[in-house]
Amino acid sequence: MIQVKNVTKKYPNVTAVQDISFEVKDGEVVGFLGPNGAGKSTTMNMLTGFIEATQGQIIVNGYDISKKSRKAKKQIGYMPEGTPLYMELTVKEFVNYMAELKMVKGKQKKELVEKTIQETGLEEVKNKLIRNLSRGYKQRVSLAGALVGNPDVIILDEPTVGLDPKQITEIRNLIKELGKKHTVILSSHILSEVSQICERVIIMNHGKIVAIDTPENLEKKTKEKNMITVTVEDLKDNMKNLEQKVEEIEKVELIKDNQDGTKQYTITSSEQVDLRKKLFEILPKEEITIFELKKNEVTLEDAFIKLIDSNQTIEAPKQEKQPVKEEKQVKEKKEKVKKEEKKKDKGGEK
């Protein structure tokens, strides 16, 4: 459905996106993640044809977006960040206008406008001015503008930003339904949202792709140790000897003393070992009462932070080398000028 081949976007003073390649299959829901300035929005704008790539090739449903721009753009519905809308139009007028921009004509246009309004839950407010709608409904209107014309690809840039929890749930459910009929590319800072909706995740940093995989695989790959959190009553302080009692345990760490007299610990073992069953057997024998025991799971957020941090440690030295060198050169020049001035002063005194 979408092929991105060695795409780079350069501006006069910065390279926003550097030599990225990926594919999105027909009917797939893919999440774009990355910190601010990572290149996500630039990439999405190139996918929609809003800005041109400096180098590389973007193919949408068989059409090269730089050579057959009109046909490629017809395959795409785009919901930009910030919901840019015409506030003096009614909902129906706006969706109708977007249908005209996409060259949907005649009887088909009327049917598609009504269908899109129903699909996005805007039936009750279709004759209201957009400026009088809540933030959640404005997001729906922007989504309707992307959907009208029934494009094969839907690109959503931060579709739930600024919404309350109820509105987020409603938009999230709408996106899940879209994934059944369309190819969806979604950018979001809410990682739990991406984990629930998306089949694959593309993580960007410094204009490059750091990782492409399913949320589940990313979580597994960044998991190094098994950690169990356990809350116990340990009147004889036997937890300190637990490492000697169970050879699979690598570390037992006290997290906090609770007001009710219980203590909370984290118990670490290698990734291949699940200690829960063994702990249930051995702790009562050591006169330790278990109040709570749970396995700490790695989330997509944990994986994201780890991948971004590891990427920054690689990138940082490259960014620092040149300024340090320039600073040294400036310092040497200043010292040279000072020496020359001193020589002149001495010559004048003579």
CATH class of the domain at 2-75 and 152-221: Alpha Beta
Strands of the biggest beta sheet: in what spatial order? 6-7-8-3-9-10
SSE succession: EEEHEEHEHHHEHEHEEHEHEEHEH
Distance between the ends: 83 Å
Overall mean confidence score, pLDDT: 84
Please give the radius of gyration in angstroms. Answer: 29 Å
- Indicate the CATH topology of the domain at 2-75 and 152-221: Rossmann fold
* Parts with pLDDT < 50 across at least 5 consecutive residues: 313-327
Helix content: 40-55%
Largest sheet: 6 strands, mixed
CATH superfamily of the domain at 2-75 and 152-221: P-loop containing nucleotide triphosphate hydrolases
- How many strands in all? 14
What structural keywords apply?
6-stranded mixed beta sheet, Alpha-Beta Plaits, 41% helix, single chain, 350 residues, 11 helices, elongated, 4-stranded antiparallel beta sheet, alpha/beta, Rossmann fold
